[in-house]
Amino acid sequence: MAENTSTPPDMEKAPRLDSIGYPQEAIIKHANDADEAMKAFEGYEGESLVLDEATSKKLLRKIDWHLMPLLCVIYGLNFLDKTTLSYASIMGIQKDLNLVGDDYQWLGSLFYFGYIAWEYPTNRLLQRLPLAKYSSFCIIMWGLVLSCFAAVTNYQGAIAIRFFLGVFESAVSPGFAFFTSQWYTKNEQGTRTGIWFSFNGFAQIFGGLVAYGISTGTAKNGSSIAPWKIVFLFTGLLTASIGVIFLFVMPDNQLNARWLTKDERRLAVERVRINQQGIGNKNFKAYQLKEALTDPLAWAFVFYALVADIPNGGVTNFFSQLIVSFGYTSQQSLLYGAPGGVVEIVTLIGCGYFGDRLKNRILVSTSGLILAIIGTLLIAALPLSNNGGRLAGYYLYQGSATGFVALLSLISTNVAGYTKKTTVAAMYLIAYCVGNIIGMKVSPFSRPQIDIDL
C-alpha cells in the first residue's frame, strides 16, 4: 500500500514556527519595526557572544575617549553661543542697534520662541534621521547663523538671527541625551550627562575671558568692527568648525563607528542590552505618543523644568548686567563672571558621579539646589555695599543646574520606546524655554536700560 504523504488539512492552516516557537509570519510582519541593534547580530545566529568585565571596561574607556570630548566641547559651545548676547549687552549692542524699551528683552526671548517652535519636529528628526549627521547639520548651521550677527545693522535682523539660533540649537540637548542612552548603561548615564553638561561652566569661564580680552584689546588698539560683533563672529565660526569635525568623527550609532572593530561594534551593542531600550528605532508609534502625553511623571518633569528655569531666564541673559549692578565696571563684569563656571563644573560632575554611585540622582542633585538657594539669599539679603558677598551669592547660584540635569538624564535612562522618549524630551525642553521666557519678562533687568559703554 502506498504511503500517504499528503498534509492534513489542520496542519495546512497552522502557522509556521521558528526554532523557539514564534510564528514566522509575526516575525516577518514586525521585521521592519525592529530596533537598530538587531542589525549588529545579522548573520551571527547561533554564535555565542562573551563580554567579560575586563573587556567591558576596556571598551567603555575606548567609547569615552572617542565620544565624550566632542559631546563636551559642543555642549559648551551651545551654552557659550546663548550667552554671547549677555556679553554684548554691555559691549555696545544696545546703542549700535538702537534698542529701546523692551527691545533687548525680546531679543533674548526670541531664541526661546525659535526653540519652542522647532523642539518637537527636531526630536522627531533626531529619531528618524541618522543621529550624528542631523546633529552635526544643526551644529554647523547654528554656528553660521550666530556669526551672521557680525553683519547685523538693525533690530529686525537681530530678531531673525536669534529666532533661527533657537531653531538649530533645539536639537542639542535631546540629541546628546539620545547619544548617552545609546552608548552607555543606565548606571553610567548620570555621570556622563553631568560631565558634558558641566561644560556650560567651562564655556562661562572661556567666554568671559574671550569677551574681556576682546573688549580690552579693542579699547586699546581700536577695531574696524564693533567689539560685540567680534565676539559673535569668533564664537560662531568656532562652533561651525567644530561641527564639521563632529560630522566626520561622530558615529550615528555603534554600527557605523569607524574606530570600533566589527566585533567591538557587536560588543558595544551587547553591553547596553541591560538597558532594554535598544539603540534606536526610526518608526513613529502613536501609542507611545499617547503614553507620553498621559504619563503623570512626564508632566511632573515638565512642571519642574518650567518653574526651575524662571530664575535661569533672568540670570543667563542678564548676568553681565547683574554683576555690574553689584558695583563693578563693565569690563570687570566680563572677567568676574567666569568663576561661576567653576561652581557649575564641580556641582554637575559631583552630582552626576555620586548620583550614579548611590543610585539616587534626584536626591543627590538637591545639594546643588541648596547652594543656589543660599546664593540667592545672599544676593537679596546682603547690603548693596557688600559687593563681594553678593558676587559670591551669584557664584553659588550656579549650582542650580543639577536638578535639571538629573531629570534630563532620567529621561534618557528610564523612558523606554523612542517615540515616547523623544516626546517626553520635547515636552521637558519646551517647558524649559517657557520658564526662561517668563524669567526674562519678570527680571528687573528687563526694564528699559541705558546702554553701558566700555
Overall shape: globular
Low-confidence parts lasting 5 or more residues at pLDDT below 50?
1-31, 448-454
Strand content: under 5%
Average pLDDT reading = 86
Cα-atom Rg, whole angstroms? 25 Å
Number of strands: 0
**Percent helix:** over 70%
Secondary-structure element sequence? HHHHHHHHHHHHHHHHHHH
Summing up helix and strand content along with how strands pair, one would put the structural category as mainly alpha
The biggest beta sheet is recorded as:
none
Ends: how far apart?
109 Å
Figure out the total of helices. Answer: 19
Describe this structure in words.
There is one protein chain. With 454 residues, this protein is mostly helical. 72% of the residues lie in helices and 0% in strands. The longest helix is centred in the N-terminal third of the chain and has 37 residues, at 53-89. The N and C termini lie far apart (109 Å).
In brief:
The protein contains 19 helices and no strands.
Helices and strands in order, then pairings?
Layout: H1 9-13, H2 24-30, H3 53-89, H4 93-96, H5 103-128, H6 131-147, H7 155-169, H8 172-183, H9 186-221, H10 227-249, H11 262-271, H12 286-294, H13 296-325, H14 330-336, H15 340-357, H16 361-381, H17 387-397, H18 401-414, H19 418-442
